[in-house]
Amino acid sequence: MLRTRSLSFAYDAQQEFRFPDMQLDAGEKLLILGDSGIGKTTLLHLIAGLLRPRSGSVELQGTVLQDLSVQELDRFRGRHIGLVFQRPHFVQALSARENLELVQYLAGRPRDRQRIEAVAESLGIGNKLRERPHTISQGEQQRVAIALAVINHPQLILADEPTASLDDKNCEKVAALLEDQAAATGAQLIIITHDQRLKERFTNTLTL
Amino acid sequence: MNLFRLSVRNMTSRPLSTTLSLVLLTLGVGMIALLVQVDRHIQQQLQNNIGEIDMVVGAKGSPLQLILSAVYHIDKPTGNISLQEAQKLKRNRLVEAGIPLSYGDSHQGFRIVGTDQQYPELYKASVVKGALWQKPFEVTLGATVAMKLGLDLGDTFTGSHGLVDGGDSHGEHPFEVVGIFGYTNSVLDQLILTATESVWLVHHHEAEITGIADAAEEPTQEEHAHEHEDTGHVHAEGWEVPDEDQQITAMLVKFRGPMGMVQLPRLVNERTNMQAAVPAFEISRLFSLMAVGVDMLSAIARLIMMVAGLSVFISLYNALRDRQYEMALMRTYGATRWQLVQLVVQEGLLLTLTGSLLGLLFSRIGLWLVSGLMEANYHYAFGGWVWAAEEGWLLATALAIGLLASLLPAIRVFRINISKTLADA
After folding, report:
1. Contact B329/A90, CB-based, under 8 Å?
2. Whole domain around residue B150: which residue ranges?
3. How far is A107 from chain B (nearest CA, A)?
4. Which of A4, A83, B13, B223 falls 20 to 30 Å from B59 in CA-CA distance?
5. What is the pLDDT of residues A162-173, one digit of tens each?
6. How far is CA A13 from CA A8, A10, A16, A133, B15, in A?
7. Do B92 and B200 reside in the same domain of the chain?
């Protein structure tokens, strides 16, 4: 279960972001809509523990992120949260498979080839595992990025504008894949976007 | 996949800057290690060969040349001295032993040295096959000579005049191999030893033949007329050597006590036609001459190592700048700050360690080449491939440079702002 309480954040004195409280149960999905500059990415980073809020708290599975040290937070994030970004990025020196293995390693999990194969297969990139991610197509890269986010069975999947750079067909596909993956691991899924195309897919939406 | 493999992959994914760092490190470390090794080997060889020789007596000329030719057999002789005068010196109460040496001839580049049987004792040489020479024209070979020329007991060869291969052959006086020494790791391994008389007889006979050929105008004609008289000095089973030909090239002298060092070199240099040179002194003079060059080269090598450090730093720093995002990404997947620091430092150390090991390998190949060159030119080879203590320090210094070069990038990666880096990408 995810719960945020009176989150606020300020990059400087002039502009302070205040975010509405939210609560999400296991397996629930939430679409957060909002225009550019309204603090969507800031909210996502707060939920993921990448930023420390000025006030308020984020609680995931009974753990309050603000109570953790920097190191504990890194570990917690690796084990429980999967992030998908607008433009996919990878460790350039490694192949897609090695990137997945690295993410398993960083989360402190044993290497699990079968899991990698299964996730890649379900995302339709089973034959791309040997490639270096930057050599494959944009749509395929986004799928590898989703694979990275879900490989460690996270309780929470956070996606930041995952469809912004994709055409309609791929947009549908990526949204469907995210939902499938979240459902497969019983994770909560939060997608933050200004992409109106996703609106009709989600019943649970929040507009900032 | 783990951090170590990731470091390796990061290095190999930017081959150009990695190669540059490795080449610089290899050069720097390799040059210093090679200098250390060559210096050490040369010093060791030089010291080894001095053995118990306190002083060398020879014809007037350069003292260094006398030492190089009489002790190390790598230079030309300074000339000849009279045996009688040398014998007189030998009877001095401060002298414990005097070993006569006659050289100037060679066989296939290996020097033929006429001496007495104290000479091999000087290097604690033992005969492994056959025996020591007993009469003129019998020779006992140094181990390397026997191995290189493939000579065995009973084989014969002729010496040629001069110290390089291809001099005039002394065809009518073949030498016979009667013994072979074991390895002594000294100059002896490179020598062909025979009786002093052999050298006299070779040259005496040649002079005689020349004398007959040019009978009319040869000024030594008169002397030759006396040569067949038995002068009674050397009786070696029918071989006769006239007194006036009894010259040697040098005499190696061992003193009875420290007083010899104080008195004898001055005595010889001031009161006789001969020259005395002290090996220990001449060699330290040679080292101080060499030291200028060695210092210069090692300064250059140190400079190269510093540039290598800079190159490692730039390589790491650029890689980090290009991959800030990767670092932030790894943090979002659970990597801690210290793991990222480890990744960066590990890369720096891995680079310097690889470069250093390549450098040491390079120095060993260099040493092998230098050794081969020395052997070809001077019949000297380096023995024993040991680690020098300096090389341990060299490795430690290189690693310290690697650590230092990765410090700034490590601090930067430690303080990375994940959120900002991700948002900016």
Report:
1. yes
2. 55-277
3. 5
4. B223
5. 888 778 888 888
6. 13, 7, 7, 40, 46
7. yes
